[in-house]
Automatic annotation (TrEMBL):
This is Branched-chain amino acid transport system ATP-binding protein. It comes from Pseudacidovorax intermedius. InterPro entries: AAA+_ATPase, ABC_AA/LPS_Transport, ABC_transporter-like_ATP-bd, BCA_ABC_TP_C, P-loop_NTPase. One of its GO terms (cellular component) is plasma membrane. Keywords: ATP-binding, Cell membrane, Membrane, Nucleotide-binding, Transport. Pfam families: ABC_tran, BCA_ABC_TP_C. Residues 6-237 form the ABC transporter domain. GO terms for molecular function: ATP binding; ATP hydrolysis activity.
Length: 239
């Protein structure tokens, strides 16, 4: 049995003749942040969809804490501790912040949803906005609320698809700090798809690079940044 909280083995998703993802190997250790980077259309979101069960695998397997979850749907995987947030914020504008976090928590853990919601709101510095309706929050706070909804029920693994999109430099910095703190305080492991290279290389313990649906490099951030193929394919002169 492996020590990985998450493992993707030889994962492929094909749309007819389009090999959106092919032969992908990916691991995540407890408390680790792994950044997934690559050009537009490289297959990052498709890999996230494959892991959450939103897309059916053409080939391969997904393991969560050693259990093969490949045949399970998204809700069953969420119940087992695999959570995600989306590229677009998924909050309900008219509902109060505490209410929607508690409702999300109730689906995971009906006995203790109020306490769970309060802990999540405090962790993400949203407790002072708990009685406001979501649409009155600033954009950065709304993204944190989106993260809060993904964090209820204390997931083991968090999959984040471009959580920094649309945020200011300061808001990105704050969210990155929250993410880093979460991994140690809540023992959450994070798979992070993100185009902001400063964030990815700043907070990731490991980075995987995609190109045309395949992994072209994987390792510690400094090692990946120095990889000639990565520099040529993606980072260019900015590396
Ligand atoms: N439903 C679909 N049907 C056919 N092709 C698809 C479908 N969804 C994605 N693709 C193709 O799969 C490939 C991978 O797309 P994907 O969205 O996973 O890339 P990405 O790396 O997440 O890109 P971005 O950074 O722009 O979000 C692309 O060539 C895309 O056109």
């Amino acid at each position: 049995m492996s020590d990985y909280v998450l493992q993707a083995r030889d994962v492929a998703i094909h749309y007819g003749g389009v090999k959106a993802v092919d032969g992908v190997e990916l691991t995540l250790e407890r408390g680790q942040i792994r950044g997934l980077i690559g050009p537009n259309g490289a297959g990052k979101s498709t890999v996230i969809d494959a892991i959450t069960g939103r897309r059916r695998l053409t080939r391969g397997q997904v393991f969560l804490r050693g259990e093969d979850v490949s045949a399970l749907g998204p809700v069953q995987r969420r119940q087992r501790g695999l959570s995600r947030s989306f590229q677009r914020t998924s909050v309900f504008g008219q509902m109060r912040v505490r209410r929607q976090v508690a409702l999300a928590s109730h689906c995971m853990n009906p006995k203790d949803s109020e306490a769970d919601a309060q802990a999540v709101l405090e962790e993400l510095n949203l407790a002072h906005r708990a009685d406001d309706v979501a649409e009155d929050l600033g954009y950065g706070e709304q993204r944190r609320l989106d993260l809060a909804l993904a964090l209820v029920g204390r997931p083991t693994v968090l999959l984040l698809d471009e959580p920094m999109a649309g945020l200011s430099v300061q808001e990105s910095h704050d969210l990155a700090r929250h993410l880093k703190a979460l991994t140690s305080r809540w023992n959450v492991s994070v798979l992070l798809v993100e185009h902001d290279m400063d964030v990815v290389f700043g907070i990731s313990d490991a980075v995987t690079v995609f190109e045309l649906g395949r992994v072209i490099a994987s390792g510690e951030p400094a090692e990946v940044r120095a990889n000639p193929r990565v520099r040529e394919a993606y980072l260019g002169s900015a590396a």
